[in-house]
Amino acid sequence: MVYPNIKDKKTFKEYQKTNPDFIIPLMYDVIGRNILKNNKKLLLLIINNVLNTNFKLEDIIIKDGRVKKEWKKQKGRECDVLVEIGRHVINIEINKRYTNTKDRKNMSYVGNLYNNYYDYEIIQININDYDIFKEGEEIYISMIKEIKKGLERIENLKIYDLNVGIFKNKCYTNSRRYDKDFITLMKIFESKSRKEIEKEIKDSILLKEVYEMQDKLSREDFVLERFPDELLHELEKKEIKEEAEKEKIKAKEEGIKEGRKEYHNEIVLLLKQKGMSEEEIKILLNDK
User: What is the pTM of this model?
Assistant: First the structure.
């Protein structure tokens, strides 16, 4: 069996043809980052819902996300999305799987932004596929504080951690805090199924635009070149599991067939012991 290979775009494109329901999810930053940078309406939806603000579309300025080096040997980095709105500088990061390295990298963005925009309100919004504090909240707000008395050390810096998994259980009609499109966006952020996404976004013009961009990017060579190994492994595991299930069913069917054959032979032997001829047994058992 041939599985899609990260270095073989042709193979993966063939996989897409034979698995038309699959789509690379927004949670993979190469997809999510490109869509956010090219859709201010989506940026505004996320920012206003997370921060509980009323910024306007014309307020948004998308900045160069490359972080300035603090010293010569520091490796150059680029944050996913960097936005300026009035006196706010907002960094949006898409984080699949928690690692200490990733957390340190995100904090380094915050530090660099504070150094370069110290007289602004510095905000980082992390869209995570994990519950970073394991308390079951959809959004956590962090600040840098003094430990003993909890005094704010840096007043103009906040970090918002979103757990997209919690939003899957959110009801549109019962939520006064969040817009329907925002809840839907969080629900589909990890989805790899076109059918699931299409079902959720059917009433949203904005999210249909996002889906069209997601579909286009999922077929672009520059995306496939950076397509993460772990997702390919997930696909491989899924196919192996499906094959194993097929083999299990096949073995069960063959076992039943073999059992019936053994039972049939025992009946034939018993009837022969009773003195019946082979012709009589064939007629009785309807054997051909």
Answer: 0.75
